Amino acid sequence: MSAALRPTSAIPLPDATTSSARPVIEVRDLVKVFGAGRGSGADSAVRAVDGITFSVGAGEFFGFLGPNGSGKTTTMKILTTLLGRTSGSVSVSGLDLDRDPSEIRKKIGYAGQSIGVDGDLTGRENLTLMGHLYHLPGALVRERVQELLEVLQLTDAADRPAYTYSGGMRRRLDLGSGLVHRPPILFLDEPTTGLDPQTRNAVWEYLRRLHRDEGLTVFLTTQYMEEADQLCERLAIIDHGKLVAAGTPAELKAEIGADIVTIRLPQDEQFDARRSRAVDVVKGVAGVEGASVFDQGVTVRAHNGGATLVEILRVLEREKIPVKEVAVSPPTLDQVFLQHTGREMRVEEVKPMNRTGFRRGGRQ
Amino acid sequence: MATETTTESVYGHGFPRISESAATGVGGLFSEIAWVCYRSLRKLSRNPFLLMFTLLMPLIWLGLFSQTFGTLFSKAASSGGAPALPYDYIAVLLPGIAIMTAIQSAAQSGFAMVTDIETGFMDKFFVAPIRRSSVLIGKLLADGLRMAAQAGIVLVIAYVFTLAFHWRIPFATGIPGDLLIVTLAAAFGVAFSGLSNSVALFTKSTESTMMVSFTLTFPLLFLSTAMVPLALLPGWVQTFSSYNPVSYVATAARAMILSGYNWTEIGQAFAAIAIVGILLNGLAVVAFRRQGR
Ligand SMILES: Nc1ncnc2c1ncn2[C@@H]1O[C@H](COP(=O)(O)OP(=O)(O)OP(=O)(O)O)[C@@H](O)[C@H]1O
Ligand SMILES: [Mg+2]
Fold it and tell me: Cα distance from A347 to chain B (closest Cα, Å)?
């Protein structure tokens, strides 16, 4: 994506990256460069996280929305003490990441992108192990594990090795293993990727309850617009290691302020020329707030989208710009993403480094 | 035992949270190690196939060596080529076989490490408030117990065959000596598994781990006094074997089977184990600490 194609209209809301509540996660100028200083030179280095600043308030449900490779997992691993950083400061629960990593670990729960469940152990054993690794007394571990198994609806499968679990059951178990010690802060890296809609809804419901009833602070990453929209009180859009926008879902959508008219143009040799021409001419149409290009055509922000569309099409017709497809929609996070990155967000259902799905589970 | 710090629970039940003193005290350390170890053993028990082969492997080696080399001495003696000895060659080989099973298990030690990293399970350990060393020590402890069991099986079966099929194995030091042999074999196995774990952690690849470990296993065994006594080795192998830690362990163990305790040799064996252990596991610790840097 070249810089010229980037829309310039939207600038992140000034204070949207910071929470108004007492912050429990504070991140300033976080940078992570992979492969720097490994002899092969700077060109092979990947700036996975490129100067991120944000905070999450106590009891807030906060999310990172971003496409593959945007730096979500990297950020989350740094915050959960699993990965070192190149520069920047991080504090979690008022504790400094460098000084008190083990104190931080006691305060957080984590469910990673690749499901860290031991397939050879039963669900109950997985949870019990985690309980003991958090040094809870034995009786308490038993009690909590039973409780979690019930809440996560895993009681029937509790004493079966986890490799016999379905993807959804595994996700829930993994979630549970981050909750045995009842952390006040929960980190979830794409908690519903790969789940069917029904299971996804069940996980959402459980997360909502945890957040609402127990006051948990949740920091979640996702590639799903809908998930961010439904769950997060506040979210930041991350792309190429940078936060390009932040705010409540409503704010982000309101920022767009109008209906969105998406115009797709035929992808032929004249595409580029027609697209830039189209942007220019539609801007002159009454009711049009602004227009920007994306990889398949033009998006137009318009008041009273339906009526304006008629006029837009007339203008395009006059300019002899063929149109492949048009759509009018109220603003969604898709448009917010498009607005800020110049790309449509596509979800790729490829899970990196996660072989649990293919493994029978036995041969570890 | 532990004072529980009750803070108001975000879950609303006023449950005691993490018990601080258990986490920081020695009891906490032991508990961490024990749970990591328990988990490894549990995995083994959940894999009947792996468990079976773990236990079968010593038996196969014993059978193989006894059939091919077992009667070497008596054959040689009967053809007039060597003096008759009061024991079979299998008695000479026995400690070597015990050590060999341990080394083989040690060579595989890193596999589980790679799998845990790949599946993301390792992150569960790392995100918990436990010492990283507990993860390594707990795993090594489980490996050690497994190796001890394997070495023990070698000796028990050899003993049964001695009774049943009149194998001529002296077992000069009896059960206490046998236990010491098992200890030596397992301790060497644990020390040597540092290599497999280091390669696993540095490369994060099962293939590399397998190649490095298996490539080294056989030279280490056969360029030592484990399979053939020093006097019968060719010159350059003799020289090499005197630098090979396996030789010291094998020599000390062999004496316990054939003649009796030789405390100097036993001391040297433990010293060799300590050196190997510190070097290789030191490397593994470095590799382990580098995780996530
Ligand atoms: N260990 C690593 N070594 C080198 N580069 C890495 C490493 N881990 C991640 N990266 C790179 O950093 C960038 C961000 O990766 P990250 O895993 O944080 O993305 P993500 O937003 O979680 O993506 P996804 O949605 O696919 O999980 C990517 O370009 C990735 O290739
Ligand atoms: Mg990710």
Answer: 22
Q: Please report the atom of ligand 1 found closest to the CA of residue A66.
A: 21
Contact A102 B292 (CB under 8 A): no
CB pairs A-B closer than 8 Å? 129
B143 contact A CB<8A: no
**CA atoms of B235 and B290, how far apart (whole Å):** 42
* Residue A151 to residue B26: CA distance in whole angstroms: 34
Tokens encoding A317: 């017709």
Residue labelled with tokens 């710009």 = A321
CATH topology of domain A258-330: Alpha-Beta Plaits (3.30.70)
Provide the chain B residues 32-51 that lie in CB contact (below 8 A) with chain A.
Answer: 32, 35, 38-39, 42-43, 46-47, 49-50
The tally of CA atoms less than 13 A away on the side-chain side of residue B79 is 6
Any domain includes B157: yes
pLDDT one digit per residue (tens) for chain A, 364 residues:
343 333 333 444 445 677 667 889 999 999 999 986 555 555 678 899 999 999 999 999 999 999 889 999 999 999 999 999 999 999 999 999 999 898 999 999 999 998 889 999 999 999 999 999 999 999 999 999 999 998 888 999 999 999 999 988 999 999 999 999 999 999 999 998 888 888 888 889 888 988 988 889 999 999 888 899 889 999 999 999 999 989 988 888 877 767 888 899 998 888 989 998 998 888 888 888 888 888 888 988 887 777 888 888 998 999 889 999 888 887 777 778 877 877 776 554 444 443 333 333 333 3
Q: What is the pLDDT of residues B164-181, one digit of tens each?
A: 887 888 888 889 999 999
The residue ranges of every structural domain in chain A are: 16-253, 258-330
| Ligand 1 within 6 A of CB of A101 | no
Question: Distance (Å, rounded) from C-alpha B196 to C-alpha B201?
Answer: 9
- pTM for this predicted structure: 0.80
What is the rounded distance in angstroms from the CA atom of residue A212 to the CA atom of residue A206?
10
Based on its alpha-carbon atoms, the radius of gyration of chain A, rounded to whole angstroms, reads: 23
* Cβ contact A30:A64 at 8 Å: no
CB B210 within 8 A of CB B221: no
Min Cα–Cα distance to chain A from B209, Å: 14
Contact B127 A105 (CB under 8 A): yes
Q: Quick check: do A16-253 and A258-330 share a fold?
A: no
| DSSP state, residue A319 | T
How far apart are the C-alpha atoms of A237 and B141, rounded to whole Å? 46
CA-A74 nearest atom, ligand 1: 18
Are the C-beta atoms of residues A88 and A118 closer than 8 Å to each other? no
Instruction: Look up the CATH architecture of domain A16-253.
Output: 3-Layer(aba) Sandwich (3.40)
Q: How far apart are CA B56 and CA B51, in angstroms?
A: 8
Q: Give the residue from B46, B54, B261 showing the smallest Cα distance to B171.
A: B261
B86 touches chain A (CB under 8 A): no
CB of A244 closer than 8 Å to CB of A235: no
Structural domains in chain B (count): 1
Find where tokens 């936060």 sit. A243
Q: Which of B124, B131, B210 to mutate to test binding with chain A, by most A CBs within 10 Å of its CB?
A: B124
Domain range for B90 is 48-291
